[in-house]
Amino acid sequence: MVTVDAIGPVRVLGGADASSLRFDATRTVHAAMVALDAATLAPIGSAGASRSGGLPYIPGLLGFREVPVLARAFAQLPVKPDLILVDGHGMAHPKGLGVASHLGVVLDVPTIGVAKSVLCGAVEGDFPDTPGTRAPLVWKGAVIGMALRTRRGANPLYVSVGHRVSLGTALAWVERTLRGRRLPEPTRLAHEAAARVRLAAMAAAG
DNA sequence: GCGACAG
DNA sequence: ATCTTGTCGC
């Protein structure tokens, strides 16, 4: 895992997320990877994949559950992203390698962790409910990520280094793709796409 | 030993 | 993670 910028020009942005059923004995996970024009944020490609028989959800082991399917979705993508925003933590993980970093290393593509809640650590310092406000996510004396207020009255986002991207660059990309919403566009579209992959797979199976 | 716990 | 109408607030 590389925690500094090792990234070329970003023309295509990627978004990655998975969708699954709350109670599912087959442990099927559906994943989607979307591609957007980095300049306009217009969607330019999408791919999905499903896989059963993987791990159940275990905090700390999310990557082992989602990365295999996400990697398959990536392989199906006609346009390969230069940078991928992943739903979940990157370095802000007990072992320092969350799903975002895990995916980045497996694909060897720059990634950013965009999580909606904390796995480990705590937000430090003042953190008023004003869009644009940041506060460090600290764990065992080290800054492992940044809490980001993206919308008033909404829970913050937790951005962390995934792979080959510094925290500063990660924050810049997240803020640049918000479009006034709580979640950045790549992750938001990936979430919707993953849900559609799941619904389509379920409809096909009956 | 107890509590916390991405999605 | 998912289910799901109305409702509160900017």
TrEMBL record:
PANTHER family per the UniProt record, alphabetical: ENDONUCLEASE V
GO molecular function: deoxyribonuclease V activity; magnesium ion binding; RNA endonuclease activity producing 5'-phosphomonoesters, hydrolytic mechanism; single-stranded RNA binding
Transmembrane segments: none
Keyword flag Nuclease: yes
Xref: InterPro entries: Endonuclease-V
Cellular location(s): Cytoplasm
Recorded family membership: Belongs to the endonuclease V family.
GO biological process: DNA repair
Site positions for Interaction with target DNA: Y57
Pfam families: Endonuclease_5 (PF04493)
Keywords: Cytoplasm, DNA damage, DNA repair, Endonuclease, Hydrolase, Magnesium, Metal-binding, Nuclease
Enzyme Commission number: 3.1.21.7
Source organism (scientific name): Falsiroseomonas stagni DSM 19981
Function, in words: DNA repair enzyme involved in the repair of deaminated bases. Selectively cleaves double-stranded DNA at the second phosphodiester bond 3' to a deoxyinosine leaving behind the intact lesion on the nicked DNA.
Cofactor: Mg(2+)
Catalytic activity from the UniProt record: Endonucleolytic cleavage at apurinic or apyrimidinic sites to products with a 5'-phosphate
Residues where Mg(2+) binds: D17, D87
The protein's name in its UniProt record: Endonuclease V
GO cellular-component term (any): cytoplasm
